Amino acid sequence: MWRNRAGRLITSPGGRSAAAPVAGALPALAFPEPSLWWFAYIALVPWLLLIRTAPTGRRAAVDGWLGGLGFMIAVHHWLIPSLHVFIVVLAALLGLLWAPWGWLVHSLLGSTTPAAGVDGASRARSPSRAGSRPPEEGGSAAPEPYGTGAEAGSLPEAGAETGTAAGAGARTRGGTRAAAEARGGTGPAPLAAAAAIAVVPAGWLMIELARSWEGLGGPWGLLGASQWEVSPALRLASAGGVWLVSLLVVAVNTALAVLIALPRARTAVLGGVLVCALATTAVWAWTPVPEETGRARIAIVQPGVIGGADSVERRFARGEELTRELAGQKLDLVVWGESSVGADLRERPDLAARLARLSRLVGAELLVNVDARRTDGKGGGGIFKSSVLVGPAGPTGDRYDKMRLVPFGEYIPARALLGWATSVGKAAREDRLRGTHPVVMDLADGGPRVGPLICFESAFPDMSRALVRRGADLLVAQSSTSSFQNSWAPAQHASLGALRAAESGRPMVHATLTGVSAVYGPDGGRVGGVLGTDRSAAAVYDVPLARGTTAYVRFGDWPLYGALAVLLALCALRGARRFRRTAPAPSAPPARTAHGSSGRPGR
User: Fold this and answer.
1) Following DSSP, what letter does each residue of 153-175 receive, concatenated?
2) Where mainly found (predicted)?
3) What is the pTM of this model?
């Protein structure tokens, strides 16, 4: 009974439109806070099977778009209190990135394109190939429901009428196809199904690349990031970044979908899975483990949630109080969270002096974060978010200005067009200004060189890679997710540090104002405990330092180039096959007969 209901669901456009967003939302459960990392390897299967049964490529693109909308809302649902209904508009626009992917999945695995291999040809649609005859005049062929394969291949046996030898051959071919359809549709060729294990993940990776652009929200919710606590996956990330992990996750989902829907392609798919497993194992075994060179004692100061009109001053005072408790612990660095200082230290020398006293007290420099308006001395300027290093004598002069800003949170893209978002949510009233280059800071007494990141910059793999290539020994992300305190956002943000540490082979400190604060070693494994969203405390961590260069730092985003090459190869192959099919056939010579013909009278 349930199979009949499911069949009716996918045969109606309304049912498909309702099912697609739900199927697209399932992968969100693999991310924190549920952190069902294993679920990522099966979460795409319902979506893939739904797209496969689409009656046309156009409908598959719609299913891809609606599924993408569901995915974006589910992964970013914690933004709803800030953006309200505008999140649906954004999700609908970003969901369009999945429309071509839906079409791609359908072209490779679609149940209505039998014998559609990598070239996408549907030989059954040609009556001459199937041995069928065109429908009688005045008649019509009624299409079967979605996913039955009838649209592409249930063809009549024309040989039964003609009685010729050609008709007999056609009858044989037609019977074979009818038997295949009795088993649920011919589907794609086994070779095409096996190729889908590489092509479908490649298409997904292009979506992740496109939406990783800062203007589209940045790389939050990359599928590979769901594996942040899985050691073998982190090892893969050190070889090819989060991109390589995403490829693996989508490849497993695709293989499962093919095995479920296309039993006759099982052998080819299992062969593809074996090749994928061997390649993954080889990369995992070849990737070197970071070599520890020493340790640094790093303290995180997390003042906790402090509200009210004078919250900026009281937060600063709470940070002072917690930092004083660190005296005598032989620290190398004390890290405060994002927006921990609410005024430009050049304009407020009293604040700079208080920070300098703290540095002398604990015997270490402080890395604070200033969120304030700053002038450039020429009457210009604006609001910057800056990481500022403060020593015993005051600010050392090392300062990093945030380069990548949060869309709508810190600036509004195309404000003239989208500025109305400020009237329906908590969008930025004024655009913050951005920095121009990354900075690596040198600590006194030969301590580790620090590469700072601010807020969601820790989501960008290329930024941490650039800092390590500039010589950073320690990555530090200063963050504040207090606006989303009781949601999945703090845990999701903290988990990104594990990926950045594994990719770069350098430890990562994720320090926040209100939690979750955490530290990760050079292999991405967690160091010590976490400071949750219910804590107002300071914690000290013995952080392992490492040397060496990971494959990701050395070679960069090579999985992206590999995925692009796969898609280009597919386009070239399909183009070549289409060109051969459309080439004019050579004209046949006139037939010779024993008794003559209208073209050649008999003797």
Assistant:
1) H----THHHH-SHHHHHHHHHHH
2) membrane
3) 0.83
